[in-house]
Amino acid sequence: MSVTPQTNTDLAALAAMFKQRDDFVLCGHVSPDGDCIGSQLALAAALRQLGKHVTCVLAKNEPIDERLRFLPGVDDLVPAELYEGPARTFVAVDVPTRERIAEAAAALRDQCDLAVAIDHHAVDTTMTDLVYVDPDAASTTVLVWDVAGLLGIDRSGDVALCCYTGLVTDTGRFQYQNTDAAAMRAAAQMVEAGADPAFVSRAIFQNRSLPSVRLEGVAVGRMRFGAGGAYAMSWLSLDDFESAGAVKADAEPIIDALRAVSGVRVACMLREQGDVVRGSLRAKDDTDVATLARTFGGGGHRAAAGFTLECSLDEAVALVDAALEKTVGAKAGEGACTG
Fold this sequence. Notes:
37% of the residues lie in helices and 17% in strands. By secondary structure, the protein is of the alpha/beta class. A 6-stranded parallel beta sheet has the order 3-2-1-4-5-6, with helices on both faces. A 6-stranded mixed beta sheet has the order 7-8-9-10-12-11, sandwiched between helices. α4 packs antiparallel against α5. The longest helix has 16 residues. It is globular, with a radius of gyration of 20 Å. InterPro entries: DDH_dom (IPR001667), DHH_sf (IPR038763), DHHA1_dom (IPR003156), Oligoribo/pAp-PDE_c-di-AMP_PDE (IPR051319). One of its GO terms (molecular function) is nucleic acid binding. This is Recombinase RecJ.
């Protein structure tokens, strides 16, 4: 594992500091996923074993993905805009920038006399006093797992379950390119400590709502292929969500259906959300989709990234389709699907 140039501490030093402080506020990014929520709840459970006062806040006052509702402590998450304190130590997990924690959480971060970041998203800027970012880590929960070990607490039970959930979701059930030996060793440790892989799998990957499945049918039906079948893209409008009776989280699993098509190297899913369009990118080879996302003001990992466009859905489809055609390329004739 290799940390970023912005990193100015290590996990052992962070663990030692955590032991000396109190009144922790733990925050993740907007639209939190399994790694984000899992990191918050796992670190909170670890710190509470030391008798610390800990509150996990939501960057925005928005619904949590129903598939994550099984995680212990999830019902105690407080929207940052509603939290009134105390707040001395702010810990950002799985989030690299102020923009990704939204205004209320950023204001809360500024109220604290010390801010810390533990993350695996590599960016060129920092938003905290202490920074530990390891882009080689398969998930932020792997880093939290290590911190918990350095704290000397009992990692069985809630800590193991929350950390495993973040790891299995950020590796796409250990299918993505970030699945390495370190990730598998950490997963084994978490399972040995009590995390139940079958239980987590049922809760997250075998627990989709009917509206989510209906949305997938719409998205698959309008899939568009380009660059000789090297990429697949699709999109969902507000009307699609309304017709299916779906919510935002129902669209999250759909990109995996696009990514699964033979010959596809990069998948892109666009969804209309209010007056903006959210885009998700996934790669199943060495294509760096984070670079592509950054051209649209977004970011992420080499194999998984996202962005937001302030334009109409039709404009977004045309813009992203052109960018994918230009950057992805194709190996002509090698099992490509032409749609």
